Amino acid sequence: MKVFCGRANPTTGSVEWLEEDEHYDYHQEIARSSYADMLHDKDRNIKYYQGIRAAVSRVKDRGQKALVLDIGTGTGLLSMMAVTAGADFCYAIEVFKPMADAAVKIVEKNGFSDKIKIINKHSTEVTIGPDGDMPCRANILITELFDTELIGEGALPSYEHAHRHLVQENCEAVPHRATVYAQLVESRRMWSWNKLFPVRVQTGHGEQVIVPPLELERCPGAPSVYDIQLNQVSPTDFTALSDVMPMFSVDFSKQVSSSAACHSRQFEPLASGRAQVVLSWWDIEMDPEGKIKCTMAPFWAHSDPEELQWRGPRVG
Questions:
Q1: CA within 20 to 30 Å of 61's CA: 177, 196, 259, 278, which one?
Q2: Which PANTHER family does the record associate with it (predicted)?
């Protein structure tokens, strides 16, 4: 039997799903994953629970049963949160079989087997109907499909399919909305990750300078994206050339499109310099009012530095 495993494409940086056979060491796959990081992110988990509890309450206030679809359930944590918050039933989808098997055991051990069904499929293969994986569409959509690019982990196609086939129109969604932010900076250190500069080395004949060929120096290179922890970057390593600007937002409670799109914004300069690097991060709002927010913002753009969490923004 073959099982899908996520792999980062070294050329594009995107996550792709590849098939591995039954002899593959799936324990290593789980060990290299980010499951533990997410499970130990207390702030994120608290806000997910607050958002889920609020969504369940809104559905119940309308006199409806709270039927939850959890895409990418992993350990089943968010599904168990949903049932704890009062959901009537939860359909938890996990494509990675070793993790789906683990989720079955975790859900059973915590006493939720009667209200949570683990479905070991890709969400686009889930069926609806009397003989399907789900008897009817869900009215609450819960996901944790995001990577450091927000939607680079194939999130939009999964959302698009779910809205078309698996959830009710204008369903409750947790998270409800996400916004991507960007800031232009000048930084020799970060610029050097994509450029060749003269290198000074100590030799037996003293200091020598290795100078790259002029052709390489003039080569503009290709735009690159780097995953870094911006909170570890010293403020002396860059100069902000613009304010932080929201680039685009996605409302996950409505139909989304996975088609390629272009978002254009004009930055107002704060200082003169070379716009060498774009710093980028995102926020997710767990509720329609935006009162429950989980942010990836670095310390200089955080609304409350005292609440700063260890999370990874991006640089490009």
A1: 177
A2: PROTEIN ARGININE N-METHYLTRANSFERASE, PROTEIN ARGININE N-METHYLTRANSFERASE 7
